[in-house]
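Minutes, project check-in
Item: structure for the 452-residue chain
Input as provided by the requester:
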Amino acid sequence: MWIERDNKKQALIDAAKALRSQVLVVRGARQVGKTSFVLDALKALSGHPQVRINLSLQRGGVIDGVDYFGRDFFGAAEDAGQFLHNVSLLLGPIERLASAAVIFIDEADRHPVSLEAVQTLAGLSDKLKVIYTGSNLENIAVKNSATGRKLHFDLYPITFREFLRAYGKQTELAYLDGISLDDKTFSEMHHHALNDHFALYLRLGGMPRVLDAFLDAQADRGRIPGIIADLAGTIEENVKSVLGEKTALYEYEDVLRRLAFLSMDTLKFSRLQVNHAGRGEAKRLVNKTVGARVAHKIRLWDSGTDLSKYILFDAGVLNYLLNGSDLLGSKAADSHRAVQYETAVGNEIIAALPTRDDLFYWKSKRGAQVEFILRSPRLTAIDVKSTRGDVRSLDSCAVFEKEVECLVKISQGLPRRTVNYEARVAGAEASRRIELRTLPYYLSGRLLELLA
């Protein structure tokens, strides 16, 4: 079944229409639904001439019922001369087009010369609105960086809110959207229902193929284990396509699994080294994984050195790596559950941010750690608990980091706002008053709105 992403779709349409001396680059992990998402959005631009190109094809062909031109249409010239000539033959002289043509270039990383043409194509944005997609665009080295000529649009897995809508839980969705922390009366009935739905989302994640098998009444949910295993294999193949021979020594799925286990803390690359491959190869592999948007890099706040941690891009893929392919029936250890909640909440926050690079984490010299730090709209420390949990790490952050303006604990508990909370650290003389907000997991996607 098709899962609507109306807000995101309209944002893409608006971005494409508004292009000025730029091309639009839609980024996202393999199998996250970039192609179908763009094709759906293009229906709203039916008044514009459209050209669809899939650069995984040498010549034109049909993929999933859609006609595409191939690499021969784009040509091999870095100045896009052959491509522009073919567009003119197809649509007429570009300078005489009555309305701007929309050019959709899919799998652009499969034909890197197409990325060398960005500078040229961006200069024609009044007549050609060019949309690139690909799963390895950030991992492709180009000679012409075309600085300032790319407008990036990030597509992440289906969010919890989008999942609720597709699941037909309109009552719970309306309640979620209407929650205000100024209202001290909350529905425990809807709260428990939403916590249950989030626990389900925690298992399934947001990959379209998995959710399609779960939500479609005609589909067989017994196919989910095979689908998630295939997705993990596809992700592995996609990242390995940009890795050298040394890094091929790694069993990549095991590397993802290790990243999953280690995602709660600062990553030491030595813990990824295998088969005589050194720290440099381990670091390069992780960087390529981030570039393929399979993992997100969370930097240590106000650190001059690279002491980052990494979370995987999807809760369902994480569930598979930690607990096996039976996403709905597997039993998770408590330590795994903590990683799963942190990852799901982190991905919900990232999906709402202008860029994933806006998310940080904090660690004290004493070892206390806060899962996430946001600099905007307020400098906020965020801790994620797998049940209800304490706030000792948040207390430490508040006491030792005076710039922090707000504390947020995300757990199973009801929403609550404490304006004059007293943060204390055992054994330390200092304390301070600060605002503390308690949010349930299902409000993670609204965090920025609730902080404003």
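Outcome recorded: The mean pLDDT is 90.
No further action items on this chain.
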